[in-house]
Amino acid sequence: MASGDGIRNGEQYLQGLRDDRDVWMEGEKVTDVTAHPGLCRGAQTLASFMDKQFDPGLQDVLSYAENGKRYAMSFLKPESKEDIVRRGAAFYEWATWSNGMFGRTPDYKNASVMAFANGAKFLEEGKPEYAENMRNYYEYVRSNDKVLTHTLVNPTYNFSQAKEGKYSGKVALQVVKETDAGIVVDGARLLATLGPHADEIEVFPSTLLRAAEENIPFAFAFAIPVSTPGLRLICRDTYDHGKSTFDAPLSSRFEEMDAVVTFNNVLVPWERVFMYRDPLLCNRAFAETNAVIHMMHQVVCGKLAKAEFIVGLLCAIARASGKDKDMAVKGQIAEAMWVAESIRAFRFSAEQQAHKDQYGHYMPLRRPLDTSRNLFPKMYPRLIELVQLLGSSSLMATPSEADLTGQISDDVERYFQTVNLNSKDRIALFRLAHDVAVSGFGNRQVLYERFFFGPQNVMASIYFDLYDKDEMIARVDELLT
Ligand SMILES: Cc1cc2nc3c(=O)[nH]c(=O)nc-3n(C[C@H](O)[C@H](O)[C@H](O)COP(=O)(O)OP(=O)(O)OC[C@H]3O[C@@H](n4cnc5c(N)ncnc54)[C@H](O)[C@@H]3O)c2cc1C
Fold first, then answer.
1. Ligand 1 and 191: CB distance under 6 A
2. Which residue's CA is minimally distant from atom 20 of ligand 1?
3. Cβ(171) – ligand 1 distance below 6 Å
4. Where are the strands (E) in 18-68, listed by range?
């Protein structure tokens, strides 16, 4: 695996996507994701984010220097609390560019790969070579600034079996052959957000779900290029319908796409295998390498940017018609403010209580991050409900950009104004609110927040298990004795 020059710019990133990847959407093979109408603007957006890594004003926030090269900050191996805080600032900066609406920026997976490399000793329990593979892989993605996606979950074929951690050979990804060159895998995984826009795909065990001990052919962790022969991405419909940025402010920019991944006898080279034939080790991997904690750190920073944006949107909506003077409306928006401030507090608490991990590096404190990842899937749908309640019919009073200059422009200019906004600005604001709270893009965001980290009941039960309950129970017992 060749060592690269560190951070890449947007053009280098786009060039890397022009390969033989097998991407399908709406019945057709996508020949070039950087030119496809449903995917190209998402790719360009990510390319513009990569370019920001070269902005002199942002350089020290977004990257760090080592051996004469600059690497993305998300690859930093934290050696102190200050490093954790510094990395949080980079996560937050990345998230503000899309206000959290492009959730799967590469820093998410970078933090995970860094953690697995940090905790590579854990992988030695499988085989020493696997740990070495992971250290090499980290160096490869860091020095080539590769963009990663991941797919961690087997499709549910029979829920009662899936609940027991048993997968169906009919659909789930499994090893079908071993050769001198590597393992051959066949089956499907879901879901790969950013799949068509990624260079590499991590195929790892779930961060949460527990596999049964006998599930040996389904137990592995590996990473391969998205363009590997036999790997196919089956996309959902695109939410980028080619509208202008005025008409579709979010979906025209931030379509990050989700795809089911199928593997048709795909050869995975041994040097890309990190765990194999050990379901119980796989079950422990994300927790014991601390990867899940470093990923949660990226997530809390992104959710802060997103919650702040929704607060801003609600305030702008209320101000448009003067509703912001109404006590009930103030109360509604205050609820969104509490969400933003809670997430800010979780981030602060986790960063300020960063501590040394078992491998000698630093990590943020888990509990505030875990609290955030359990609460936000419930809070975000409420934030969207608030946009709908406050926006009401204005979310439908949204003529298009063409109506502003077409035959009916006089009517549009007159009838869409409010006390504080002219018609054009009011329409722009509510088209944005529509993309947040009504459009397919907006609804996908809600679904994403509900599920991307896994089933909420499973996350909650893990939280319960990890919580220090004894002291609190003792206080109850003390009162009762
Ligand atoms: C927009 C979006 C983007 C996503 N992006 C990604 C991605 O990039 N990468 C990725 O890997 N995944 C991604 N996901 C998938 C996400 O991880 C799953 O949706 C989530 O884990 C729930 O699984 P499911 O969709 O199969 O739901 P279900 O069919 O309900 O399956 C739930 C699974 O959870 C388990 N389960 C549920 N309840 C229990 C219980 N009580 N006890 C034990 N086990 C239980 C079952 O084993 C089952 O396998 C994404 C999801 C969405 C909606």
1. yes
2. 454
3. no
4. 22-25, 28-30, 63-66
Does residue 157's CB lie within 6 angstroms of at least one atom of ligand 1? no
Element of type H or E holding 178: strand 174-178
Distance in angstroms (rounded) separating the CA atoms of residues 111 and 75: 6
pTM equals: 0.96
Q: Compute, in angstroms, the gap from residue 452 CA to the centroid of ligand 1.
A: 7
Per the structure block, which two tokens stand in for 417? 């104004």
Structure tokens at 130: 């696997």
Query: Strand, helix or coil at 188?
Result: strand
Q: Is the minimum distance from the CB of 151 to ligand 1 under 6 angstroms?
A: yes
Domain parsing of the chain, residue ranges: 291-480
Domain 291-480 matching CATH 1.10.10.10: the answer reads: no
Q: What is the per-residue pLDDT across 435-479, written as a single tens digit (0 to 9) for each?
A: 999 999 999 999 999 999 999 999 999 999 999 999 999 999 999
Q: What is the pLDDT of residues 400-439, one digit of tens each?
A: 999 999 999 999 999 999 999 999 999 999 999 999 999 9
207 Cα–ligand 1 center, Å = 10
CA of 160 to the centre of ligand 1 (A): 14
CA separation for the pair 130, 291 (Å, rounded): 16
* Helical segments of 206-290, H only: 279-288
Q: Among the atoms of ligand 1, which is closest to the Cα of residue 454?
A: 21
Q: Cα–Cα–Cα angle for 202, 207, 213, nearest 5°?
A: 100
Three-class secondary structure of residue 328 per DSSP: helix
User: Which atom, in ligand 1's list, is nearest to the CA of 448?
Assistant: 1
